[in-house]
Amino acid sequence: MSVSSAQSAIPEDSVGLVQPQSTVLFQDSPLVLASGQTLGPITVAYETYGRLNEARDNGVFVCHALTGDAHAAGRHHADDPKPGWWDPLIGPGRGIDTNEYFVICANVLGGCQGTTGPGSINPQTGRRYNLSFPSLTVGDMVSVHSELVRSLGIERLCGVIGGSLGGMQVLDWAVRFPDQTAAAIVIASGHHLSAQGIAFNAVGRRAIYADPAFQGGSWDPESPPRFGLALARMIAHITYLSEDSIALKFGRRLQDSDQFAFDILKETEFRIESYLHHQGKRFVQRFDANSYLYLTRAMDYFDLARYSGSLAESCARASARFLVLSYDTDWLFPTSQSRELTSALLQAGKHVSFLELDCSFGHDSFLIDIDPLAEVIRPFLKQTRASEQRRAARTRTDSQ
Amino acid sequence: MSVSSAQSAIPEDSVGLVQPQSTVLFQDSPLVLASGQTLGPITVAYETYGRLNEARDNGVFVCHALTGDAHAAGRHHADDPKPGWWDPLIGPGRGIDTNEYFVICANVLGGCQGTTGPGSINPQTGRRYNLSFPSLTVGDMVSVHSELVRSLGIERLCGVIGGSLGGMQVLDWAVRFPDQTAAAIVIASGHHLSAQGIAFNAVGRRAIYADPAFQGGSWDPESPPRFGLALARMIAHITYLSEDSIALKFGRRLQDSDQFAFDILKETEFRIESYLHHQGKRFVQRFDANSYLYLTRAMDYFDLARYSGSLAESCARASARFLVLSYDTDWLFPTSQSRELTSALLQAGKHVSFLELDCSFGHDSFLIDIDPLAEVIRPFLKQTRASEQRRAARTRTDSQ
């Protein structure tokens, strides 16, 4: 296939070909992390879609989830088999309309897709950080995002948006940098991870620690702790799916036959087993085991109520308009969590919209079922811009 | 503490001191397993409580769950720190009243607490079976139970009862040996394991397979695959608890401090993590990794609908009175499963009682919250006996 015909296969409402970008922040003074440790310089991998307008008030920052990356939309090459992870939501005329908004997405601090993380070279030693990398929090990730936005010349974003760990970043951002965003869209997330969620993260990390290839985190990049990381992913993947979606997609169907193999070493007797093994294998090709440790731990640590005396007091610090979205089949971040958050935001007198969406895909719904998301996000962002313009007009009038 | 004072500490409604018993079955002709393979002789470890009456019609067989054993009630020694696993339910005047019933509990085939399993010595080789042990089904376990009951001189049991994997045994028993029991009590179980349940079993087994100490199942008994088995238990344990019970018991409380340690190698930052590690460590002291593989796989395989053309057709083969109990917070065997089973039993015209019990402990409720169980089981068994006596009277009248 020639490049031109491949390009013509990219739909018109796509952002099209995009360039990975990179910048180095915290060069002069390092970032002080929540742990008290410092880190710098920090390389940040990011992408942008659409154009920053003259008023510099149309920025929308997308926060990715646990194993996501900066490549949220478009394709890097005309013949890329797949576009960015949230491509159906981001583009000309799409839910986050790149004709209207300047969209930014950055790989998180501690990640492994271009932003400084445990797999990066420590400039002071010339070797990979590995587990000498400092412990991270969601707040630390957001501090880097926040600095990136300032470095792009944007004082105030129109909105920040994210699902799961991305939603935690949105909440942290709205509370710790209240002047930096007009809207906060929190999807399939919560003000903290439940004890059950911590438990699942813990067994995933245990799988990595127990892999002999782990070598105390100083594993050979040529032979990473594949078994441990794949198992961690397999465990986590179960929590991303709803029981109904597993039942519908795989049920109790066998992989190779309609008769049991009765072979105790056969690990892919059922289709669901084969699927999980496939997910595990794919994951180790793209993800760093040490990053997985740091990012899941940051997720465990996140607890908005700890920012102040209570959840409502933490929420009181924010000034953004909130949109809280949950899914009826999500059991990792159940709707009850979103209700608690919404209730605390209301108690704090904040502007908040809350909606539980019906979707059978469980926690992963926000990555799959895009149309219902787009239908809610589009008007919410539009109303936010209108509100911001009224606010700007009032400010101008006041200063006249 | 002297023995006599310890004995006096055993409550009066306990079965008191009990003797582990053992018998060897399938000596002359081996058991033909569902896989077509044969196995024999088979040693069966069992215990009995109460006395078999003259009519030999007061037997109640207790089927244990995945990692249970034959020691369901009483103490082996006066100074045993803990009684059998279902002790609060079984004893004089208790839910299963040993003044009335002769209670039998046996370790399952493939287990590791006295009944022949992969850790037993294969008489043909003089070495442990390990993975040369044949693949098992729930039906194979029940075939052994059934033979044990016959060997005790009991033609027809008053009831069989079990939770979780034990409930599957009860269902198999009622369908495959319909004349052998008058009642079938199925608790926190179902007619099959859900695809999600298979997924959790699969990741647990993966943890064992991936442990270098596993050695293809031929591990050294002095250095078993501890990490893998402990991790399998940790994963499974999460599914035994309800989200609410984890939240209530542990919440997000930290183990050693009220401040995060920010140490990426610390695996017990949160109390729930410490608890899971403790569960994992305790489990490897008492359980055989190979048994865990065989028993979880048998659980995956179980599917009552496969016994005939449909679930209702399988149920039609049974003749017992059924009592189906579920727990509102059990997400491994949710109430919806028990409803499906009850519906199929009704469709097949069977006598069935169904009750969803309220208990916050999730799947493990049947091992913890005994009083509500006892309140339902006591009258159900009593009614079954009355019904059996009427049946016997009718048979006598008919034959006069």
Structure description:
The structure is a homodimer of 400-residue chains. Chain A is an alpha/beta fold. In chain A, strand 2 and strand 3 form a beta hairpin. Chain A has helices at residues 3-9, 138-151, 165-176, 195-209, 226-240, 243-249, 271-286, 289-301, 311-316, 335-347, 365-368, 370-399; strands at 21-25, 31-32, 38-39, 42-49, 59-63, 90-91, 96-97, 102-106, 121-122, 127-128, 159-163, 183-187, 321-327, 352-357. Mean pLDDT of chain A is 96; it is low at 1-8. In chain A, the strands form four sheets. Chain A has an eight-stranded mixed β-sheet with strand order 1-4-8-5-11-12-13-14, with helices on both faces. A two-stranded antiparallel ribbon of chain A has the order 2-3. Chain A has a two-stranded parallel sheet with strand order 6-7. In chain A, helix 4 (195-209) runs antiparallel to helix 8 (289-301) and helix 5 crosses helix 7 (271-286). Chain A folds into two domains: 3-194 and 303-399, Alpha/Beta hydrolase fold, catalytic domain (Rossmann fold, 3-Layer(aba) Sandwich); 195-301, Orthogonal Bundle (Rna Polymerase Sigma Factor, Chain: A), CATH 1.10.1740.110. Chains A and B meet through helix 4, helix 5, helix 6, helix 7 and helix 8 of A and helix 4, helix 5, helix 6, helix 7 and helix 8 of B.
| Approximate helicity band of chain A | 25-40%
Q: In CATH, what is the homologous superfamily of the largest domain in chain A?
A: Alpha/Beta hydrolase fold, catalytic domain
Gross morphology of chain A is globular
Instruction: Work out the strand percent of chain A.
Output: 5-15%
* CATH fold assignment of the largest domain in chain A: Rossmann fold
Beta-strand segment tally of chain A = 14
- Give unreliable regions of chain A as ranges: 1-8
Q: How does the major sheet of chain A shape up?
A: 8 strands, mixed
